[in-house]
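Sequence only, no structure available. Ideas?
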Amino acid sequence: MTVEFSELVERTLDECLPAAGTRPAALCEAMRYAVGSGGKRLRPLVCLNAAIAVGGRAEDARHPAAAIEILHNYTLIHDDLPAMDNDVERRGKPTVWKKFGEAEAILAGDALLALAFRVAAKAPRNADAVVEALGDAGVGVVLGQADELSAMRGGASGSATDDDFAYRRKTADLFVAAAAMGALAAGGSAADVARLREYALRFGLAFQYADDLADGDGLFTRETAESRVAEHAEAALAALSGLPGDVSFLESLAKRVASPCGFRGFRV
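Reply:
I predicted one. Tokens follow.
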């Protein structure tokens, strides 16, 4: 089933992105390069499975799932720029700015951001709420990046102390949007959407702490990070209780994030 869902995501992304050769060709190539350069596709898979969790169909959430992945990749393009993280490689390939130039990368990110909202608006139900959830995530990521930059420059910042503001904004907000968008597109109740928001918040935080542990470059001590992974993963699992549909995939994600291997080498 997971492979089937992954194929649905890839097919929808291909439909929504500008066709190869569309004018201006360099911009369209950069957009497709950014989105098509790999990644775990966790956010769209969470979106599709949130639809299943409220008793809907994955097909109901295919456009919201594509939208959250498109927005996610816009954030990566801009994060990698020299003015931000100055990364030259992502997923084993040159970053968008390194391959296409800074100006083209900025424009590709801008275009993907706008495209994400156009795609999200195609949700079959609750399109206004789906778009609002995507907007919340888009703002949240920028807040998290600004907070992180402030910390790097020695300014007053939550991420420089013992909290997880940047983690919530840069990582968890996208998972929260993914879950909410999927549930809303499938017609889930307000209570079920709230459960999935809580699940995704906790999973997103656990995911970021686990990622820090794997990379060895987090803001917190290893002991603190390990404790928070376990705490948030447990809370994520608890939040799934009472949902009317199949939550097995979402459960498996929460369990995996707390395991020693985490998501290293994750494949669908």
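The beta strands are 89-90, 93-94.
Hope that gets you unstuck.
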